[in-house]
Design a protein that fits this description.
This protein starts with a strand and ends with a strand. An 8-stranded mixed sheet has the order 6-7-5-4-8-9-11-10, sandwiched between helices. It has a 3-stranded antiparallel sheet with strand order 1-2-3, with no helix packed on it. It has 7 helices and 11 strands. The chain is an alpha/beta fold.
């Protein structure tokens, strides 16, 4: 499938899949979306706590990098696991401008390490922050009572509805600890119904720029 690098409205880059007309991040702002959905409405709930995070759709590494920057700032201990079936290429990584757009030039080595680290191995990126990248299809996930927070960042329902199925959300529910939280940019009724069916309590929140709403789901 043809992929091209495009610039989103906040200046940050993303990957566009031309056949699907689908992007890895919001065209209205990749960085703004990540900060709003996953940091503001996810990670911020766990201040001063040790947090285990599962990311569904590791993609360009943007969510992991922003979470690492936030963890350093807040001196927070995080065990981060990112699942991705189709890793992006080294050439595509080089074209991502997140380091400069986040004014994080002093952390450029960390962004490189995120992508250069071996799949399937836990690596220490910074004091208190570990990363494990798993090359895996979402339906193969079988974690049980492991995570405090899930970043659900799969491709949209329009192009891959199977990633938003009741079966997938049952796996997410099982993977979370009691009182765990799942956040996603999505706000479709069919997604909410699947979440509720497996046991989540779902709330609708204001979405990131360019999107009216998003979901946050809780276990327990």
């Amino acid at each position: 499938m043809k992929r091209e690098i495009i610039q989103t409205l906040d200046g940050s880059t993303t990957i566009h899949l031309t056949e699907w007309d689908e992007c890895y991040h919001s065209k209205h702002g990749a960085i703004q979306e990540a900060q709003h959905v996953f940091i503001k409405n996810g990670l911020s709930l766990f201040q001063n706590q040790k947090v285990a995070i599962l990311e569904i759709g590791f993609g360009t590494g943007l969510n992991a990098f922003i979470t690492l920057l936030e963890a350093k700032k807040m001196q927070q201990t995080i065990d981060y696991v990112g699942v991705e079936a189709y890793p992006i290429s080294a050439e595509e990584v080089l074209k991502m401008n997140y380091v400069s757009e986040l004014n994080a030039d002093q952390e450029s080595t960390l962004f490189d390490t995120i992508h250069e680290s071996n799949w399937g191995e836990k690596v220490l990126l910074h004091d208190g922050f570990t990363l494990t990248k798993r090359k895996q299809f979402f339906e193969e996930i079988n974690d049980d009572n492991t995570y405090d927070l899930i970043y659900f960042d799969a491709f949209g329902y329009r192009v891959q509805p199977e990633l938003w199925s009741t079966e997938i959300f049952r796996k997410m529910f099982k993977a979370l600890k009691n009182n765990g939280v799942l956040v996603t940019y999505a706000a479709r009724g069919v997604v909410k119904r699947s979440m509720i069916e497996v046991g989540f309590t779902v709330e609708k929140l204001a979405g990131p720029p360019g999107k009216r709403e998003m979901f946050r789901a809780r276990k327990g």
